[in-house]
Design a protein that fits this description.
heterodimer, A: 112 residues, two-stranded antiparallel ribbon, 5 strands, 42% helix, B: 201 residues, alpha+beta, 4-stranded mixed beta sheet
């Protein structure tokens, strides 16, 4: 997310906040507002300006939490998440983000 | 998601002997071999980039940077490197600090960068440590002499190292404040808050 070419694209749509559940006081309680069961880490949720969850990283079974979206079905679900909330991202932006993710997965040797 | 959240998986794979070659007879007890010392200080690295990268990573995690000025052939620096690996130290490296090890050679390398952090390097008193905040400002400095054992002045005292690190680690962030701030900003700008729960490891 911090890659120089990715961060500005994400910033068009998102205000990103990272909550370290081990260090940040109250992080676990905030997570529990949005999900009952332990999903493992990382886990993320897209929230609107009224704190309502729009969609979270727990994909329908059997995919489950895509905290690290590297398998093709996980990347596909991340795209679903982006499509669901897009207000500023264009289709080209989303295609770029997905391609960057796939490329990064390939470079790291993951990617299913 | 993307590089910062992609797990780095290192697989250690053992190799079997090639077919047809018998394994060595286990008749001689294994010799204790002194392993070559690792080199914590990258002698060819761009020091400023190491520091900049650590500051950027620390800012992302809301933690601090420890700049460690030393040299691979300096006894104090290498003793400190060993002391750092103690179990009681591990949480500092996993949760609280991003470390930038800066090679100072024989006090003839990267001195200009040390000067910008008002770090004074003295032979026999390495390493010198500087704690930086998320903006790269120096919060504290210390050096080997202050971290040595009272009983053995050649050895580092893990308790003193831990006390220094604990005294200058970042305060635990207030998740509610961060969360509310993100949601407010999202509302103000018609955006979505991307709330990412993770751990420092």
């Amino acid at each position: 997310m911090a890659l120089p070419n990715v961060a500005p694209v994400l910033a068009r749509e998102f205000v990103i906040v990272k909550l370290d559940v081990d260090r940040a006081i109250g992080a676990q309680a905030i997570e529990k507002r949005y999900i009952d069961e332990d999903q493992g880490l990382p886990w993320f949720v897209f929230v609107d300006g009224d704190s309502r969850a729009l969609i979270n990283s727990t994909a329908p079974a059997p995919t489950d939490n895509i905290g690290h979206p590297d398998k093709p079905e996980e990347v596909a679900y991340f795209k679903v998440m982006l499509e669901k909330v897009k207000a500023h991202l264009t289709d080209d932006d989303i295609a770029f983000l997905i391609k960057t993710l796939v490329d990064a997965n390939r470079a790291s040797g993951s990617g299913g | 998601m993307f590089l910062p959240v992609l797990p780095v998986v290192l697989a250690m794979v053992g190799q079997a002997a090639p077919p047809g070659i018998p394994p060595p007879a286990p008749s001689v007890p294994a010799q204790v071999v002194q392993r070559p010392a690792s080199k914590p200080y990258n002698e060819s690295a761009d020091a400023q980039k190491l520091i900049d990268d650590a500051v950027k990573a620390a800012a992302t995690d809301g933690i601090r940077v420890l700049v460690n000025w030393g040299a691979n052939d300096d006894d104090g620096s290498m003793r400190f490197a060993k002391a750092r690996t103690g179990r009681e130290m591990s949480t500092f490296w996993s949760d609280e600090y991003k470390v930038a090890n800066i090679d100072v050679g024989h006090l003839d390398k990267n001195l200009d960068i040390a000067n910008t952090f008002c770090v004074t390097l003295t032979a026999g008193d390495l390493p010198v440590l500087a704690v930086l905040d998320a903006t790269g400002q120096v919060l504290a400095r210390t050096s080997a002499a202050a971290l040595k054992s009272d009983a053995d002045t050649a050895a580092f005292d893990p308790a003193k190292i831990a006390a220094f690190l604990r005294a200058h680690q970042a305060p635990e962030p207030d998740a509610n404040r961060l969360f509310e701030e993100a949601v407010r900003q999202a509302k103000r700008n018609g955006k979505t808050a991307f709330v990412w729960f993770s751990a420092p490891w």
